[in-house]
């Protein structure tokens, strides 16, 4: 079983990383409680991002979120497991930084940028295509995922085409849709390589280094874009501050802890179901809280993508 690569971000991690068989585990009330946290919290992070970028610049806010969450996680690891748990080699640190940049700068922060132009629910549904990209990457490196996985990829790409229609028709900004698609590719590459390069042995320490590296990368890009020039802290709304705090504490720490615990306490096939529950939660919250319209391309394309992810997950867990 591969480690939970950067699941701290609150954006769905690929279920393809959960494909190895595991012994049967009893499903207790604690398992369902932890799964509910992952379902709801990770699904709600898209809403949190949308509210954060109402009055905060996208890359600088993402940088603050990840850097702060990474430092908090590192402090928790040192407190609970001792400072030695954070010890890594130069190669491991470089690998963690690379994965952090791919997942958080190239992946999550681009979603943050895109949510300044497209609804949070649409962004979540577009992100759900990640498992399909991972199957493509596995095939490109010589693996043979199976007919069911390929079928899931084809169905997922069809759903992605339908989800792109709002951008092509002018209902939403096309550049926002394209940026999210680019973000899913970066996230997929980061998830894929994380189990193939020398990462820190402690998954919590690895995630802390990933978040700090990704946060620094986001902040540098934000400064390079000049986001600080027109930004005034006094103009940030209370709801944006609350949303950012929610993303740091709940999206990046609470849900990650629940997810990491689930990997050791629940069947992997059950844990992987978050990949097709999160988008549904995101769409519902976006509609209820932000009054985001659920148009027919979003409903149809989203349904197709979720079905594709379900097919890929079910194929992987049988493999």
Task: Describe what this molecule looks like in 3D.
By secondary structure, the protein is mostly helical. It is built from twelve helices and no strands. The protein has helices at 29-52, 58-81, 90-114, 120-127, 130-140, 147-168, 174-193, 203-224, 238-265, 268-271, 274-289, 296-318. Helix 6 runs antiparallel to helix 12 (296-318). The two termini are 13 Å apart. Mean pLDDT is 85; it is low at 1-9 and 12-24.
Describe how the helices and strands are arranged:
Blueprint: H1 29-52, H2 58-81, H3 90-114, H4 120-127, H5 130-140, H6 147-168, H7 174-193, H8 203-224, H9 238-265, H10 268-271, H11 274-289, H12 296-318
Question: Summed up, what is this model?
Answer:
This protein has helices spanning 29-52, 58-81, 90-114, 120-127, 130-140, 147-168, 174-193, 203-224, 238-265, 268-271, 274-289, 296-318. With 319 residues, it is mainly α.
Structural class: mainly alpha
Distance separating the two termini = 13 Å
Helix content: over 70%
Kindly report the average pLDDT value: 85
Largest sheet: none
| Number of distinct helices | 12
Report the radius of gyration as a whole number of Å.
Answer: 18 Å
Low-confidence stretches: 1-9, 12-24
The fraction of residues assigned to DSSP E strands is: under 5%
Principal-axes geometry comes out as globular
The arrangement of helices and strands along the chain is HHHHHHHHHHHH
Number of strands: 0
